[in-house]
Each structure stands twice: as C-alpha cells, then as structure tokens.
Amino acid sequence: MAQDLQPLARPASLTALFTAFTALALQGFGGVLAVAQRVLCEQRRWLSREEFVEILAVGQVLPGPNVVNVSLMIGDRFFGWRGALAALAGMLSVPLAIVLVVTAIYTEYAQNAAVAGALKGMGAVAAGMIVGTALKLAPVLRTNPMGRPACFAIAAIGFVSIALLHWPLLWVLPLLGIAACVFAWGRLGNQP
Amino acid sequence: MSPLSLADLLQLFGHFLLLSLVAIGGAIVIAPEMHRLMVSQTQMLTDAQFNASIAIAQAAPGPNVLFVAVMGYQAGGVAGAAATLIGIMLPSSLLAFAAARWSQARQDWRAVRAFKAGMAPITIALLVATGWILAANTPGSAHLLLTIASALVVWRTRLHLLILIAIGAAVGALGWI
C-alpha cells in the first residue's frame, strides 16, 4: 500500500510526543486504538504496521489497560523512561480532566432521550472502528513466518472462542498463545 | 458524594493494585470484580453509578480505562479517582515497561521472534472480538448496520474518525437506531 512507502519518522522531542498523544487521545471516542493506529502509523509514520502489531501484542498479553501499556512502550522506544512518562501523561491527563467534568454534569442529562440515543450511536461507530482497525492491520500477517493458512486458523479460533463462545480470556490467551508461539518457533527453525 | 476516610482510600488503592495484575485484556475485563468490590461489598457506589461510569468513559474522549477513575471519583472525589486510577495502572505499567525493555534488547532471539509471529494473528482476532462484543451488547439491526458501515469506512477510506463519531451521535440522537 502507498502509505507504507513513506519513510518512517520519529518524534522530534518529548513535547512533540506528549502533544501527539494528547491530540490522539482527544479524538478517541469509545476507545483510542483506532485513532492511535491512524495517527502513529499513517499520519506521523512513527511506527510501521508491523511494529504497531508487535507492541499491541505485548500490551494485550500483559495485564493492565492495553492503551496505557502501548503508550508507555512507544514512548520508551523513542526517549527511554522519560518518553514513556510523556506518552502516558499525554494519553491520560487532559482526557482525565474532561471525563471528570463530564461525570459532574452527566447526571443532569442522563434521562434525556437524545443524549441517550447519541451515546448509543457513538457506541455503534466505536465498535465498527475497532473492527475496521483490525481489518487494516490484517495485511501484516502476509509476511508472518507461520504462513497465511495457519495465521487465519489461529485468528479464527481466537475470535470464535472469545466473541462467540465467551470463553474467558485468561484461558484462551495463554493456551492459544503458547500453541501459536510454539508453532512459530518451529517454523522459524526451518528458515535459513 | 460521600467522602472516604484515609483508611477507605488506602483499602481501595490496595485492591486496585491487586486487580491491576489480573487485568489481562484490559481493565474492562475485571469490571465484574470491581462491581463486586465497590457495589456489593462496600456499597461505595450504586448500580446506576457503576453503569454510568462505564458509559461516560466510553462516550468521552480518551482511553476507556478512565472509567476506573470515574468510579473512584463518584465514590470519593478526586482522591478516590487518584486511588483507583493509580492503583490500576502502577503494577501493570512497571511490568509492561520491564517487558518492553527486555524484548527490545532481545529482538533477534528466536523465542522473541516466535512470540511476535505467534501472537500477531491473536492480537488481530482480539480486536475483532472486542468490536463484536461491543456491537452485540446492543440489539437491533440498524445498530448493527451502523457498526458494519463504520468498520468498512475505517478500513477502506481516510475519512476523519471524528466525523464518523459525529455521524454516529447524530444518527443516534435522531432516534434512527
């Protein structure tokens, strides 16, 4: 894709990192991952799609809020622990202030039908944005050493067990994860 | 808003420190446990306040984990918000930081490469599953249609995401879904 032909860049300073994360957090209604992928991979070009998926994988496997983990790992990559703090502060400080103000006034309008409807509509779009982001990231699997059929099978098992069967992530993630990683380990050994 | 005593705040902080380390898949995964702690057990929050916390954080800009801060805020003001948010983030963030450093330094290791390759399809599947679960929570075919349309727009176009959210809000406010 054309977007991948542009060379990767890096944030100019801690301030640039902070403001970029603040800006993307403020665009993230109903979750930040879709915006983070768009801004970091496509607009700023600080990360390739492959790097984004790798960082997200670590962020998902580890406990804690994914977006928080991802922010601090990206910050650390560019500026060490100060970068981690800058990215995290950018992601959280302004949105935190906003959400607390919204909480303080929310109760006044909670019963309003238009407000409730708007929240529902935003929720539907937010769900679609996450799925759309996944579709955008899927091409990284083309170069995966496990091969496309195995990648598709693993992704399908993951989706069915979590989304359709509602099995606990605490079981699915380690079991499927270990199986996939062992398979990948074997495949990597066969490469020159 | 009932102000919490220092002992209450410390207890809240301690509980969230522990919850942080079991929150695999994000803070929302342990929402049932937070409900047990803050609504059933200590009655710091009502059921309505608990549900509103999640709805507000989803609707407001920023990461969804801020629902944890909203809960703390409703239970004990700014000090309560600090106790829950710092509690939920501190242990997991230190772990993520250490893990990132460790894997970055060993990115040529076969085990690290196997982990990255093996987890990539699962990472993408989890994203789809998250969107699916969010969409399935609200019944209605118009609602589902809006979700599918949004997914296609994000996938195939460069339409600004704020415009997409605004369309969703307008469609909902008009009562079309």
Description:
The complex is a heterodimer of chains A (192) and B (177). With 192 residues, chain A is mainly α. Chain A folds into two domains: 2-139, no CATH class; 144-192. Helices cover 76% and strands 0% of the residues of chain A. Chain A is built from seven helices and no strands. In chain A, α1 packs across α4, α3 (49-61) packs across α4 (66-109) and α6 (148-164) packs antiparallel against α7. Chain A is globular, with a radius of gyration of 19 Å. Chain B has 177 residues and is mainly alpha-helical. Chain B has a domain at 1-105. Chain B has seven helices and no strands. Chain B has helices at 6-20, 31-41, 47-59, 66-105, 110-136, 141-156, 161-173. Chain B is flat. In chain B, 50% of the residues are buried. Classes of the chains: A mainly alpha (192), B mainly alpha (177). The interface between A and B is large, with 104 and 97 residues.
Which terms summarize this structure?
heterodimer, A: 192 residues, mainly alpha, 7 helices, globular, B: 177 residues
Number of domains of chain A: 2
Overall radius of gyration of chain A? 19 Å
How would you sum up the major sheet of chain A? none
- Which bin fits the share of residues in helices of chain B? over 70%
User: What form of chain B results from the Cα inertia axes?
Assistant: flat
Identify the most extensive interface between protein chains: A-B, 104 and 97 residues
Low-confidence stretches of chain B: none
Q: For the terminal residues of chain A, how far apart are their CA atoms?
A: 28 Å
Radius of gyration of chain B: 19 Å
What's the count of strands of chain B?
A: 0
Q: How far apart lie the N and C ends of chain B?
A: 34 Å
Please write the string of helix (H) and strand (E) elements of chain B: HHHHHHH
By secondary-structure content and strand pairing, the structural class of chain A works out as: mainly alpha
Structural class of chain B: mainly alpha
Shape of chain A: globular
Assembly classification: heterodimer
Number of continuous helical runs of chain A: 7
Helix and strand element order of chain A: HHHHHHH
Average pLDDT value of chain A?
A: 89
Question: Which blocks of ≥5 consecutive residues of chain A have pLDDT under 50?
Answer: none
The biggest beta sheet of chain B is recorded as: none
